[in-house]
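Protocol step 6 of 9: fold each sequence in the batch and record its C-alpha cells directly after the sequence line. For illustration, a two-sequence batch is reproduced in full.

Sequence one:
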Amino acid sequence: MTKSRLSNNYFCGMTQKRYLFLILILGSLTALGPFSIDMYLPGFKAIAKDLNTTDAKVAWSLSSYFIGISAGQLLYGPLLDRFGRKKPLFIGLLVYILAAAGCALVKDIDSFIVLRFVQAIGSCAATVASVAMVRDLFPVSENAKVFALLMLVLSVSPMIAPTVGGYVTVAFGWHTVFLILLGLGLFNLIASWLWLPESYKPDTTMSLKPKPIINNFIAVLREPTFYTYAFTGAMAFAGLFVYITSSPILFMSLFKVKEETYGWIFAFLSVGFIGASQVNTLMLRKYKSEQLIFAALIGQVITVIVFLIGSINGWFGLAETIGFLFVFLCCLGVANPNALALSLAPFSKNAGSASALMGALQMGLGALASACIGFFEQTSAVPMVLIMTVTSVIALTVLFFGRKNIVAAPAGN
C-alpha cells in the first residue's frame, strides 16, 4: 500500500454494514451518468417537436454527452490524483446540477446539445471518482466482486430510468425529466459530502501541466495489462452505446411501440446485463477473470454474427430482436466488470489516471461507434447490428493478441 491510499487497512476495519453502505454510495455515483443517458430517451420525439427539430438532431445530444464524458474523464483523472478524490467530485457534481437546470429551461436544439456536453463533463467526475475509490478502498482481490456489486446498483438505472422517463414525459413533459436529474445530482453531492471517506491524500508531486499529464497517461498506456483489457473492454462496451443510440428509433419509429412500452422493453433488456454481472460474481469463485472475459466475448461475437445474418435477410421481428439484444447484453454483463478489474489491477499510485483513461477509452470509442449510426438510413436493425458486430470482433481480436504480451508482475505502478 502506498502512503496516499487507505486500501487494505481501511478494508480490514470495515464492517459488513459499512461495506454495503459504501457500495450503495459508490453505486449511486456510478449510476448518475447512465441515468442521465437513459431517462430522457423516451422523450426524443417530444424534444424534437418542442425544439422544432428532428429525431436525428436530438440524437446528437446523446453523442455530445458521450463525447463530454470521454473528454471529462481525462480532465478529472489528474485532478483526482493531485487534489484527492472528493474536491474534484464536488466541483463536477455542481457543474452537473447547473447543466441539468439549463437543459430543463432550454429553447433550442443547439443549446440543448451543448448543455448535454457540459452535463456530461460534470457527471463523469462521479464516474471516475467512484472507480478510483474502489481501487483505493479495496484490495485487488476484491475489485472484480466490488465492480460487480456496483453494477447491481448501477443496473437499476436502465431498468427504472427509461420506464420512469416514459411516464414522466407523457404526464409532465420532457423538461421534468431534467428536473429529476437535477435532484439526483443534488442527492449525490450531499451523500458524498456526508458519508464518503477521502480515500486518497492529495499528491503534491503530481503536476497539472500538460506535458507531465500526457507522460503520465502514456506510462499507463504502456502497461500491457492495461492496454489489453482497457481496449478490449472499451470495444466490447461500444456495442452498448450503439444499441442505446439506435433503440429509440428502432423501437418507437420502426416497430411503432409507445413511449411507455419502449421504457419497459429497455428495462427488460437491462435485466440481461444486470443478471449476468451478478452471475459473474458467483463464477469468480471458480474461474479467473481472464477466463470469464474470453468466454463472454466469444459468446458475444457468435450472437451478433447470427443476429446480423438474420437482420440482413429479414428473418427477425420485434420479439427476435429483443431476444438477440438480451443475449448480447448478458455477454457484456460478464465481460465488463472483469475488463474493469483487470485494467486497474497493475496500478496503485496512478489509479485515478488509469481509471480516467479507461473511462475515456470506453466513452470515446462508444461515442465514435454510436456516431457511425448517423451515416446509415436506419430503416431496419441492420446498421445497429453491423456496427455491434464490428466492435465485438475487434474486442475479441485485441484480447486474443494483447494478452500474449502480458507478463505476471507485482502491482504498484
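Sequence two, same batch, same settings:
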Amino acid sequence: MIYSYVLSSGLTLVVMPNYHIPMVNIDIVYDFDPRLVPDGVPHLTEHLLFEGTANIPNGDVDRWLRLAGGSSTASTTWDSIVLHNTISAPNIEWLLYIESERSRYLCDGIVDEDIENQRMVIANEMFSAALQPNGDVADRLRKKSFTGHEIISSEVMGQIYDLETATRNDICSFATQWLQPKQSTWIVTGDVDVDWLRQRLEVYFPSIESVVDSHVNTTNRKPETFQERGIPIVQNEGHRWFKESKQDSTMSADRLTLVFASPPAGTIEESVADAMLLSLTQSQTWEHFSSIDHIQGWSENRSYGGWMALSIRTSHPKKAMEELQVWLETPQIDWPHWDDRQQYLVAQYLETNNGRIALLNGCLQSLETSEITDCVTWQRQRYSGEITKEDIDSTRDFWDIEEASWLWMGQENWFDGERF
C-alpha cells in the first residue's frame, strides 16, 4: 500500500511501509529552479547541510545519526537536492528533528569556516574527476549538446570560480527560498506508522498560514509542473562538435560517444527508448555490427526530458555510425524478454527499502501526486502493453544521428580528413 499526502506546510509525503526489518529509509527531494540561482550554490548548500545549524553543533548531525543507527548522504542534480537518510525505526524522531533544523535554521548555524571547508571538499571532488581518463567527457557532452536548454546546459555543480565567488548571502538566499517544506517531497519506506509520521511532520514543519481551512483537501493537490514554470521540453539541437583527444596508456581502445535528447519521463516514447538503449548494450546486438566491438549506454530523464548517450568502442567511427543508423531504422527488440526483465525489477524493488525508494522516485518523475498510490501497478503495466509502429516511429525521432552530438576519441582522424 502506498500513501500520499500534501501537508498544510506544502510538504509532499509519500509512504510505502515495509515491516520486515526495524529500519526506515527517507529520501527528501528539494526541487529548485536553476535559472533563478547562481551556478554552484545548490551544490555548496548541499554540502553545508552536514555542518551545523542554529541548534545542532558542527559535526553532531553525523554523530547523532550514527548513535541512532542511521546515516545521511546527499546529491545534487540539475533541479533538486536529494537527501538520502537511513535510521532505526525507534529513533525516527531524531531524523525528523535534524531535517527540520536543516530546513529552517541552516543559515543560523553555518559560519565562514564551514563554507571554506566545503569549498575545499568540492574542489577536491572536481580535481579527482578531472584526473580520471576522460572523466569530464559526459559533462562536456551534455553542456555542449543542449546549449539552448536552460536547465540541461546549466552548471549546477559549478566551476572553481563559482565556488570562490559564492557568498554566505547566496547560500542563505537559496536555503530560504528552496529548502522549504513546500519545495520538498518526502519518500519514506520501512517500519513506520503512517498516521504518526504525518502528525509529527505537521509539528516539525508547521503551516506558514496561521489558520488552515479544514474544508480544503490538500491530499491530492497538484504541484506546479515544469511546463507551468516555463521550462521547455528538451529537443535535439543539431549541434555537433568534434574533438580528437590525446591518447594515453589508460585508454584501451578508440571511442565514439553519441548524445541524443531523450523523451520526457513517463511517456510511451521513454519506455521504448529504454528498451532500445538496453538492446544496444547487449552482446547479441553487437554481433550484427562489423565495426562495433562494444556499446555502453546511459541516460538522464526528467519530466521535461533529458539525454541519452552511447559510448561505442570502434576503430571505424564513420562505418559504426552508418551501421547504427540502419539498426535504429528497424530496431530489433525482444519485447517479451524486456517485459520479463521489468517485471523482475519491480519485484526486486519491493524486497528492500532502497529498492522501494528507487521505485517511488521513478513514479514521482512520471505521475501526478494524486496517482502515486498506483505506482506499483503502473510500473508493472508500463511495458506490458502492445507497442505500436507509431510508438516506435515517434521514439526514433529522438534517435536521429543527424541531429546528435558526437565526440571521437581515437588515434586517427576518420571523418573525411577534416581537422577537429
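Proceed to step 7 once all outputs are recorded. Observation for sequence two: The two ends are 56 Å apart (CA to CA).
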